[in-house]
Amino acid sequence: LSSGTLPRPASLTLGIVGLGRIGKRMAHISRNVFKRVVAYDPYIIDGDFPAYVERRDLAGVFAESDVVSLHVPLNAETRGMIDAKVLAAAKPGAFLVNTARGAVVDVEAALGAIDAGTLAGLGLDVLPVEPVPKALPRRFSMRPRAWRNACSAAG
Description:
By secondary structure, the protein is an alpha/beta fold. Helices cover 26% and strands 17% of the residues.
């Protein structure tokens, strides 16, 4: 049973961080699903940026997006790039999905953003350290949950 509502993707903005092969494929698939697709990738020149994707800086992606999907490699520049400062710019009620590398997201900052109500949900395919350390709050479900459940819980 749910007391929440399920927003239609056609009314939402998808933000993509990283427009490499996987990020571009995500944008291509999502362009007919989401109302808008915005993205950040400082290494893609304007001529290679897909015409159906609106370029934004990192803060802009978080400020405008209902769902942000991460598709960046892990290196010195991206380690911890999604931190409290970036998350503070997020659209209230946004969802963050990390299918990139665990250390790209500061998990403590993301949990803080959920507590503050900035993020409505957090989807982590990977964590910086696995298995989940006992010191980390046990707010993680190791079972997949449907988007429908996440939206309903936030509603």
